[in-house]
Write a structure and sequence with these properties.
The protein is mostly helical and 118 residues long. It has five helices and no strands. Helices cover 51% and strands 0% of the residues.
Length: 118
Amino acid sequence: MPGRAVPSRAVPAGETARILETASALLADEAAWDRSTERAGQPRDGRYTLYSALATACRQVTGGRDFHRHPALQAVHAAIEDHAPGRQWTHRLAEFNAEATFDDIKAVLASAIAAHAA
């Protein structure tokens, strides 16, 4: 079901949407995108994977709180499932990042943002 909302843990109102919007802004264009399967939380050579964009955005918005179980990450996981239903992933963000087009990356972020719009 596209655009489904993911139940959120106790996070400040709007935080999830701000993280998702920040990650999308970090991936403003294809030149900013690193298509690798890298799962580091930092950009590489100034370019972001989907994972590193989410990690960086979470640090910027929350002041450094761990993001691995944050509703923003869960929202992107759900959007990827909607985009590629039934696909089995070992590392969903990394593998999707490597196999997707840039338009796919922006589409899952847009879907996750829409699901958490205030």
